């Protein structure tokens, strides 16, 4: 499939003209690609002071280069066996479209954006992953705010008519899930009113989450259908310049603690430097932004896998909240091996608090 | 000698074999008159066939003269002498070989017809000639359908049908058994007498040679020549 | 060891015979290898292209409308793996491009159409958005939705159809390949005959030695073993240079063919000559040589004798008629091929005997006055030659028949292709209607131009006809719709295969014409009423003509544009214009004005015509070259054979000289004999060649592709072939004469 990979590389990486000298500088999946002067490229870049607008921000942002809708869920079977579920849809624009401009004619098969969806299920040490691709603006992939719908082919996350619930359906060759999601809390805005800095030099994203989704439904693996229920975490994030030049990858955690608190933390890393950030959400839903100094994160155990050496256990501390957690991935191999390989695994938490959550690690693949 | 048909004067012929010259004939002279016969004998390689070839113009002597029915040829060769030899073979010199005297694609009658046609005779008497040689019943047969003796009789029929002045016969009975050979030889001599033509007969067969008027032993000549 | 020496001593004395056999094997291997490599490469090339373009199935709408991007989105959202495939047809040299969506092809996995075909920067594949931009410049284009076959259930309103691309040119290439196949089989047959003839002659001449060996107590079986061993060694040695020469030959010819293919498909499809030696071809050759040379030991002697008996001849005649009937009546290609083979076998079986018999009869009837006896002798000799040279004579006959058929086929292809081009490019210029432009306005403007030459508007789209023969529930078929407004004098020269009176007037009044493909497939005849649907309008009209439409798989209906319903939407529109008193530039300015565009695309049909003809010319060149090489080989074989044969007959020509026939007259007889031989072979080749042409044109092509080619005969080429035969005959005569002179000199020395 050289055609495909050639084009995908073209779509997802070599977008802007005049790119940086070495491919390593583009960061994971080209997300550190320097887009140059934003006015020249026509893409909008989030800045401190930008705020969120609802319901529009549930939908897509054609003036921004990259964005995603991201759901992770720690579910259980009636017997109490953990089931991890991931669903993500990405949009990568090749050219920006101003807010007032009408979408292009689908009959022209426009190539303004490319869409990618990932679905994964983790169960009893096994990991099932499928990737789907589509071009935007012809109808079979997209996202709208009202009604809320994010879809690619027959995968979709959509609000259930006449209810505040969402429904998520996705399927791969030997897996599928059909889940109903109920939101029980307010939207959590990360960083500065939704602007989440990704480096000290000001690169950042607009970022908000729904952190307390109650989920019920079924997960089917091969011929076995499991009744599942549990908690989910949903992220919305968009930008035109995500990583700063030189940043190589990130470690990201979304954790549900036993007392009802939630913790989001990420670390962006480069050769000699790291950038830490996060959000602490207490049981009442109050949010405290965590900066570089408020967090410490260290890998404490590594696992050799055919795809690379991966840190599978971490120590995460938030001293101000008296949080000192040991975070561990279960046994198994949780690589999502699509166009860009990354690690996405459910985690269990011990230490000052017990809990469950999800961990995403990029930049470790060989 | 009255009315010589064939006059041979001081005829010499040599070949080169493996770089060495081999003399076959040296200063050979003889005359043959109408109705006379000459037997040419000698061991193999003594020059019997060469002499016959010289006598019908298929080979050219190194030296000497040959006169056939008044046409005279020397050792010099030109297109005129070629044409004259060809004309002589066509009308006046009949040649009979040991075998393969007939066109295999033609019936005996057609063979005779072709030969007499070439000699300038009108068609119509072929069957008569075959009957005279005792093979009239075989006229419509092809050479591969008749016996060796019949084939040689047919060859004689062809020769006599052309009414030649000279017949050159090279071992005409050489491939036949004794009885058949005698029968064919009887025919040959009888018809030669009837037609009055001259006959040069090359043979190994002393008995056959003894039936001729003259004898030319090339082995003796040759030995004599080298002495 | 002594035995072996005795065995091969014949060749020490007659090295020429050994050389002839070796040469024959080398040449035969060369020709066969060349043809094999070429056909294999052509096939691989086409196979690659087919793999590149074939998804197996595509999705169509059951209402017959063309699929659109909305259908794609709907099917994808229903969970089906479909991908768009937009063909944009541009005239040569730009050629066809195919727009694909690589992102959508992700779900095809490894079986993705266009997969392994290189990256998107290589023609003909483009991102579909770029292809749409091209199409909107005014080129004819068509969208397909390719599906992976795993989709069992389709949403209501959709159906799966077989998807095979490589449309017009693809079929011509297939047809060409099929001809090449038939040709290579004939080549194999001919080379087999040639090798056998040379080998048999050698055996016949060595018969005495074998008899001698037998008398010395060597068993016949042992002799056969040695013969087989000798043949294996000789073949093994000779096949190698033949193989090498064959690949060189293929490389030389293949270059041109590759170029032609590239031009046809716009892709570098020609699988180059860098592959290893074609050992399979060598193996076939070794087997062939062994089979044709040793078959005598396998076939009981009784049968062998029966073959040339009167009963055998009768049987051959029966076989011939069976083959002819088989070819005429066979329902499929395999039957036609088998029938053709049978006819050739029977023809080869009968021809030498018939020729010999004719020569015999002729000689029996010779007038015996004048030079009659000599003429009779020559004719008898000819009859003998036909018998002895039966195999090379038959080989030459087959080769000539093949050349004749190939020439007729290629010439027919060329002239019909010219017709076809003229039919498509009937006017001096054509003007494409840009996307979104109103062709009607332009037509009005052209109407009002005083002094303009004949012109018409071409509208292309689709129609649905009922298809009773279709399997399953869906009884409809989508066909191309071709509309002319007005029915101008530009089209009245079209080749109509069948027509009623005044077909074009009737067409203008609302009748329809159909192309040959549609007529054949649906058994449509003149006067039938054709029911069809255009957009949502049911229509029906009388068929007034069937027109030739070469090299295209699609059925097509031709209507007058005035008959089109309101709701019809054209897939493509253009104008064919003869400018008359106007300059084309002025007309295009007028149209640009009407359409409010800065520039109008105008194509000069003469240059397109020239380019297209050139492309096909290259393709045909190869076919001709192969068939001519076959002829040359057959002629060489005849020379060799005549040479060897003559050595057995030379004495009798010498006898003529002894009987007083001048040398000039003997040589004259030789010339007459050999020229008569080759001319007679030519004469027997002509009916076989004509018949083979008919088979290729009227049987094989329609069975394989649904369209026939008109059958034309080219008597001038027969004359050319006759001339070649005369030259061959003269060369044979010259060789014989040379041998005669040599022998005469030799004889004298030996005495």
Automatic annotation (TrEMBL), chain A:
Matching PROSITE patterns, A to Z?
PROKAR_LIPOPROTEIN
Q: Where is the signal peptide?
A: 1-16
Signal is among the record's keywords: yes
One Pfam match, given by its short name, reads CrtC
AttH domain mapped to chain residues: 66-240
Q: Which domain of life is it from?
A: Bacteria
| Keyword terms of this UniProt record | Signal
* Name of protein: Carotenoid 1,2-hydratase
TrEMBL record, chain B:
Which molecular function GO terms apply here?
ATP binding; ATP hydrolysis activity; transmembrane transporter activity
ATP-binding as a keyword of this entry, yes or no, is yes
GO cellular component annotations of the record: plasma membrane
What Gene3D superfamilies would the database entry show? P-loop containing nucleotide triphosphate hydrolases
- The identity of this protein, by name, is ABC transporter ATP-binding protein
Domain (ABC transporter) spans 6-223
On the tree of life, the source organism's domain of life is Bacteria
Query: Which species is this UniProt entry from?
Result: Marinobacter orientalis
Does the UniProt entry include the keyword ATP-binding?
yes
One short Pfam family name for this protein?
ABC_tran
Q: Which UniProt keywords apply?
A: ATP-binding, Nucleotide-binding, Transport
């Amino acid at each position: 499939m050289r055609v495909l990979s050639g084009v995908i590389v073209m779509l997802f990486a070599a977008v802007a003209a005049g790119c940086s000298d070495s491919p390593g500088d583009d960061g994971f999946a080209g997300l550190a690609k320097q887009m140059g002067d934003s006015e020249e490229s026509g893409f909008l870049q989030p800045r401190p002071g930008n705020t969120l607008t609802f319901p529009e921000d549930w939908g897509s942002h054609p003036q921004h280069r990259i964005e995603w809708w991201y759901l992770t869920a720690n579910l259980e079977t009636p017997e109490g066996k953990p089931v991890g579920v991931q669903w993500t849809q990405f949009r990568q624009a090749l050219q920006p479209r101003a807010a007032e401009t009408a979408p292009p004619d689908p009959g022209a098969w426009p190539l303004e954006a490319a869409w990618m969806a990932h679905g994964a299920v983790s169960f009893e040490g096994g990991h099932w992953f499928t990737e789907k691709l589509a071009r935007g603006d012809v109808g079979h992939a997209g996202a709208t705010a009202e009604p809320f719908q994010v879809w690619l082919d027959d995968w979709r996350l959509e609000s259930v008519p006449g209810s505040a619930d969402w429904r998520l359906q996705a399927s791969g060759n030997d897996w599928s899930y059909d889940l109903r999601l109920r939101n029980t809390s307010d939207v959590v805005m990360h960083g500065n009113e939704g602007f989440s800095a990704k480096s000290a030099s000001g690169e950042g994203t607009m970022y908000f989450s729904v952190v307390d989704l109650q989920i019920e439904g079924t997960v089917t693996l091969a011929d076995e259908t499991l009744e599942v229920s549990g908690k989910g975490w949903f992220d919305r994030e968009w930008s035109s310049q995500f990583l700063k030049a030189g940043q190589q990858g990130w470690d990201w955690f979304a954790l549900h603690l036993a007392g009802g608190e939630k913790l989001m933390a990420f670390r962006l890393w480069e050769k000699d430097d790291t950038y830490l950030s996060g959000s602490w959400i207490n049981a009442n839903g109050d949010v405290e932004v965590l900066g570089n100094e408020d967090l410490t994160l260290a890998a404490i155990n590594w696992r050799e896998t055919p795809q690379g050496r991966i840190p599978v256990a971490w120590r995460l501390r938030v001293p101000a909240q008296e949080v000192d957690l040991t975070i561990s991935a279960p046994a198994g191999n949780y690589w999502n091996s699509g166009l860009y390989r990354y690690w996405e695994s459910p985690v269990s938490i011990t230490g000052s608090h017990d809990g469950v959550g999800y961990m995403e690690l990029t930049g470790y693949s060989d | 000698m009255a009315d010589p048909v064939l006059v041979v004067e001081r005829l010499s012929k040599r070949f080169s074999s493996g770089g060495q010259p081999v003399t076959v004939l040296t200063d050979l002279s003889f005359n043959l008159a109408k109705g006379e016969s000459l037997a040419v004998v000698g061991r193999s390689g003594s020059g019997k066939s060469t002499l016959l070839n010289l006598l019908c113009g298929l080979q050219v002597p190194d030296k000497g003269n040959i006169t056939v029915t008044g046409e005279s040829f020397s050792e010099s060769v030109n297109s005129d002498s070629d044409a004259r030899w060809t004309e002589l073979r066509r009308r006046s010199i009949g040649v009979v070989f040991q075998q393969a005297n007939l066109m295999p694609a033609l019936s005996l009658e057609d063979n005779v017809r072709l030969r007499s046609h070439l000699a300038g005779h009108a068609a119509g008497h072929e069957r008569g000639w075959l009957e005279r040689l005792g093979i009239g019943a075989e006229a419509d047969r092809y050479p591969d359908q008749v016996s060796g003796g019949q084939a040689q009789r047919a060859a004689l029929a062809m020769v006599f049908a052309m009414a030649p002045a000279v017949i050159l016969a090279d071992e005409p009975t050489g491939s036949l058994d004794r009885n058949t050979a005698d029968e064919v030889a009887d025919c040959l001599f009888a018809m030669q007498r009837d037609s009055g033509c001259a006959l040069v007969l090359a043979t190994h067969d002393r008995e056959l040679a003894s039936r001729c008027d003259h004898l030319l032993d090339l082995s003796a000549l040759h030995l004599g020549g080298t002495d | 060891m002594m035995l072996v020496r005795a065995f091969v001593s014949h060749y020490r004395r007659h090295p020429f015979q050994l050389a002839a056999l070796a040469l024959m094997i080398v040449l035969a291997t060369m020709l066969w290898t060349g043809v094999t490599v070429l056909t294999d490469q052509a096939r691989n090339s086409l196979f690659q292209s087919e793999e590149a373009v074939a998804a197996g199935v595509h999705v169509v709408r059951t209402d017959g409308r063309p699929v659109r991007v909305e259908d794609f989105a709907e099917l994808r959202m229903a969970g089906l793996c479909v991908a768009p495939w937009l063909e944009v047809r541009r005239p040569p040299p730009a050629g066809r491009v195919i727009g694909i969506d690589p992102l959508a092809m992700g779900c095809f996995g490894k079986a993705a159409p266009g997969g392994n075909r290189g990256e998107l920067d290589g023609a003909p594949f483009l991102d579909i958005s770029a292809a749409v931009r091209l199409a909107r410049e005014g080129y004819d284009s068509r969208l397909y939705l390719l599906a992976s076959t795993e989709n069992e259930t389709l949403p209501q309103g959709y159906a799966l159809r077989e998807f095979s691309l490589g449309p017009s040119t693809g079929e011509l290439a297939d047809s060409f390949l099929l001809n090449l196949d038939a040709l290579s089989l004939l080549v194999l047959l001919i080379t087999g005959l040639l090798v056998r003839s040379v080998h048999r002659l050698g055996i016949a001449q060595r018969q005495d030695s074998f008899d001698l060996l037998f008398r010395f107590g060597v068993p016949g079986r042992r002799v056969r073993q040695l013969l087989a061993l000798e043949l294996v060694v000789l073949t093994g040695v000779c096949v190698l240079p033949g193989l090498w020469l064959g690949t060189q030959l293929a490389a030389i010819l293949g270059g041109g063919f590759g170029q032609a293919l590239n031009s046809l498909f716009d892709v570098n499809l020609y699988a180059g000559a860098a592959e290893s030696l074609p050992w399979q071809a060598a193996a076939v050759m070794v087997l062939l040589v062994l089979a044709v040379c040793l078959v005598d030991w396998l076939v009981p002697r009784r049968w062998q004798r029966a073959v040339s008996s009167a009963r055998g001849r009768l049987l051959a005649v029966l076989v011939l008629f069976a083959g002819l009937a088989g070819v005429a009546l066979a329902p499929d290609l395999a039957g036609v091929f088998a029938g053709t083979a049978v006819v050739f076998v029977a023809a080869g079986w009968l021809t030498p005997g018939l020729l010999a018999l004719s020569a015999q009869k002729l000689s029996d009837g010779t007038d015996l006055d004048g030079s009659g006896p000599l003429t009779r002798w020559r004719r008898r000799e000819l009859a003998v030659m036909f018998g002895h040279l039966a195999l090379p004579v038959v080989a030459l006959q087959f080769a000539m028949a093949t050349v004749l058929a190939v020439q007729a086929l290629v010439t027919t292809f060329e002239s019909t292709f010219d017709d076809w081009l003229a039919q498509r490019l009937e006017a001096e210029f054509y003007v494409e209607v840009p996307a979104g432009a109103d062709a009607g306005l332009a037509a009005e403007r052209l109407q009002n131009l005083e002094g303009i030459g004949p012109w018409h508007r071409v509208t292309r789209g689709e129609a649905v006809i009922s298809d009773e023969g279709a399997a399953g529930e869906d009884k409809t078929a989508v066909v191309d719709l071709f509309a002319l407004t007005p029915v101008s004098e530009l089209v009245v020269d079209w080749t109509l295969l069948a027509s009623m009176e005044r077909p074009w007037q009737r067409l203008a009044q609302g009748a329809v014409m159909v192309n040959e493909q549609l007529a054949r497939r649906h058994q449509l005849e003149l006067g039938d009423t054709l029911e069809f649907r255009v957009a949502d309008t049911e229509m029906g009209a009388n068929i007034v003509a069937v027109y030739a439409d070469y090299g295209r798989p699609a059925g097509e209906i031709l209507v007058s544009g005035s008959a089109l319903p309101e709701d019809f939407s054209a897939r493509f529109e253009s104008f064919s214009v003869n400018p008359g008193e106007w300059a084309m530039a002025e007309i295009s300015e007028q149209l640009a004005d009407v359409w409010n565009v800065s520039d109008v695309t105008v194509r000069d049909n003469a240059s397109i015509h020239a380019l297209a003809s050139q492309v096909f010319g290259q393709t045909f060149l190869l076919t001709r070259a192969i068939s001519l090489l076959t002829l040359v080989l057959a002629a060489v074989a005849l020379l060799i054979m005549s040479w060897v044969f003559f050595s057995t007959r030379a004495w009798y020509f010498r006898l003529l000289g002894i009987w007083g026939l001048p040398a000039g007259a003997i040589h004259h007889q030789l010339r007459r004999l050999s020229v008569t031989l080759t001319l007679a072979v030519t004469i027997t080749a002509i009916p076989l060649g004509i018949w083979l042409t008919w088979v290729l044109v009227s049987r094989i092509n329609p069975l394989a592709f649904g369209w026939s080619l008109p059958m034309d005969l080219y008597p001038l080429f027969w004359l050319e072939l006759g001339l070649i035969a005369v030259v061959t005959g003269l060369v044979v005569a010259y060789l014989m004469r040379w041998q005669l002179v040599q022998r005469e000199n030799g004889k004298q020395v030996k005495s």
